[in-house]
Amino acid sequence: MKLTVYSATFLTFVACATNVIFLEHLVKFSPGCGELVTFAQFLFIASYGFITVAKFGTESPKVPIREYLFAVVLFYGSSISGNLAFECHISMPIQMIFKSGSVMASMALGVLLLKRSYSLTKYVSVAMITIGIGMCLLFSTKDQKNESEPEVNFFTWLWGVFLLTCSLFMGARLGVCQEEIALKYGKYPEESSFYLHALALPGFLFFSKKIYSQASIFTTSEYFELPIVQTGIPVIWLYLAVNVATQFVCIKSVYQLSTEMSSLSVTVVLTLRKFLSLLISIYYFQNPFTIYHWIGSALVFTGTLLFTGVLQSVLSFSKDSLKKTN
């Protein structure tokens, strides 16, 4: 295996897990900061792409801009709806488990839009994912009903679930859209990433007041002293900078893996990365997580591995190894 694969895998685990940690720090400080965080991420990636992909506006895109417009709407909608859910009392572990249901949404749209048919194994795996997410949501619902303002919290929580569902299916539809573009024009992942982020930036004008308000709230956080320049900076702004940087490294590492490894291997890495992030969120932030949540999580991750064929490959490899030893 190439050194680049090892380094990309390592960076995927470290950068993506670190990103989740600092995102949760930001959300715990101010639950309404989702739009500010997303805007900062989009602006950074768009700026980087303007330099490296667009060559300061001198490089023409390989894919016509009009082809990206629908994908931009889906990408923006998926990102915004997912971030709005932060304000609805849904814990970070539940959000991560919910997002792991992307294969379920992709399969549903594959059947409805692309008229694809799937094997019985894939239907079973999607059923496992659905049951697992349902279990996590069911027992999280009970926690919400036990809180001091059950009506407000529960209906706010339900709105958060709706937003996460919208985000999940818009993300899946985005995947179909990108697949259609790739079949028509070829694969240009860096160009696609740049235009999806850059063309979505005007959409943040709708949230300009809220972004400004959240920026003001960030400024009220305790200061982190910078010894070299003899001054300080609000620590939450440092958390945001780390979150943006690790998001960028995470995306770049996943792109690197996709060029060096099979899609199956990439899925394994990403599934393990999500599980690591889940563990960190539960233990580092002491998020409530019952045995039923663990069972639901196991169903989601097992279903994901089953859907991608990972479990079948592992079982096949184990049988072959036993035959050789015998």
TrEMBL record:
It is a multi-pass membrane protein. Its main location: membrane. InterPro entries: SCL35B1-4/HUT1 (IPR013657). Pfam families: UAA. It comes from the Eukaryota. The chain crosses the membrane at residues 36-56, 68-86, 92-113, 120-140, 152-172, 193-212, 232-251, 263-285, 291-315. Keywords: Membrane, Sugar transport, Transmembrane, Transmembrane helix, Transport. It is found in: Endomembrane system. Belongs to the nucleotide-sugar transporter family. SLC35B subfamily. PANTHER family: NUCLEOTIDE SUGAR TRANSPORTER SLC35B4 (PTHR10778:SF4), SOLUTE CARRIER FAMILY 35 MEMBER B (PTHR10778). This is UDP-xylose and UDP-N-acetylglucosamine transporter isoform X2.
